[in-house]
Amino acid sequence: MEETIDDLMLPTVNEILEQVLSGYPDYPYKKALTNLDLRRNLIAQVLSQLSNWHPSEEGDKSRTTHAEDLQLSAEEKIHIQNLIRQEIAYVVQQKTEGLSRTSAEEFDSCVTPSHWFG
Fold first, then answer.
1. Considering the entire predicted model, what is its pTM?
2. Are 80 and 10 in contact (CB under 8 A)?
3. How far is it, in rounded angstroms, from Cα 58 to Cα 38?
């Protein structure tokens, strides 16, 4: 399934994502989002949540059709920032769980007695 991204909101979400990330420490937050797939998924999730909240250019012709002309209120920006923070927390939690599972498996394999000496 291919995800479509609302071209009107994409630059705005990217800009707000960078602003939000500037307040996070490098590890694990910024490091996790250096992975382009994770970053794209995060942005796609935010945009999918905004699709019902903020009309796209096809849905409302009275809105601007250029991203640079898009004016968001302070309340709208805060809403987008909160969505981004939620998605960052989710992504980092998933990545951390995956790493801890991998580390536990590696650790278990190191302390398990070898059957080779059997």
1. 0.66
2. no
3. 27
